[in-house]
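Hi U.,

Before I forget, here's the chain from the pilot set. I'm dumping it here mostly so it's searchable later in email.
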Amino acid sequence: MQWSPDRNGGFSLADPAALVLPPLMDPLYGYGAVNVEAQTRDPHSILNWTRRMLAVRRRHPALGRGTLTFLYPKNRKILAYLREYGGETLLCVANVAHSPQAVELDLSSFVGRVPVELNAGTVFPPIGQLTYLLTLPPYGFYWFALGSASDWPSWHTPAPEPLPEFVTVVLRDDLAKAISANAETVIEREALPQYLAKRRWFGLKDQTIKSARIAGLIDIGDGEREILLSEIEVKTSAGTSRWSLPLAILWEDEPSAALPNRLALARVRRGRRLGLLTDAFSLPSFARRFTSCLEAGKDIPLADGALKFWLTEVGRQRLEAARDAEVSWLAAEQSNSSLTLGDVLMLKIYRRITPGIHPEAEMGRYLTEQGFVNAPPLFGDVQRIAADGTPSTLAVVLASSAIKEMPGRGRWTS
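Structure:
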């Protein structure tokens, strides 16, 4: 593919007539119209589409290594088959015709399973006793993961109800300034109350939310991605509480799993680029940035205190092994959110923020210093220190052996 719209597609500064063969200069397919630079900027280009398809394929080994079972629908213009590998069953349906087609598939052996489309995580109606009806556009296709309701937490986090229409935040500067400027009118009033009520970790669902405001934003980004640690102050009939909600932007032209889309809070626009303001915890870059801050022992001064990343001696010896490890999200948590980096560490974020020394961090630090082998070593913790010296623990990092005692754990992997 041509590299850029520059002279000779960006590969040579020579005169086109001096080349062995002239470059394509057709107005439709020439380097001025079709090139990597232009395709990268267009989220709907064939280049970005291919990247998203490759990302889906990497997440599902069954597409390349699974057993192949062909289905034989009556409509011969439809190609349908099953791929099974490692306990995962995928249904692939493709329309090879240039016109829209409908097909009925015999999936009676999968009664009760729920097809989930792999590209966007869209849940389709469950499979029943009758043939399963699908309609496909010209040359269209579907990739489905067939999972039972009991298997949902291992690969999919369904929303309790459809998410509301997203409000839009326009970025002219950095993310923190945009949120602060739009918080009172857009995010706090229209998005946050409904968003919090749908989160599994929000423990006040039995109470009416009177108001929710962003009480603090701390930027821990690395320049490539803006990552904000935000604290949400919620007022209910029982009083006031604070909750942790890290924020980041998932742009439309980035390959991603379904989880960040499910946890989106608002829509974001910067120039012609669109994206979603989502829970940063669902992005692999958040886990890697968080652990790099911990490894560096980062100390961020704030207007009313400081944010401190405390690292233990054991963590100093082990964190380097987690830099390129695979990120997996644990789906069994309720009041907290946890993920692992390979077999090295587990990062646990406390969603409800309570002032004072956290017992898990305090006990973990003491047992680690004493060399106690019957509890996972503490690699470090993250605290926000108030101006009067009162700590509030936001997260802890433990050895990944901590997940062995969590029954019924499921994982998202990226």
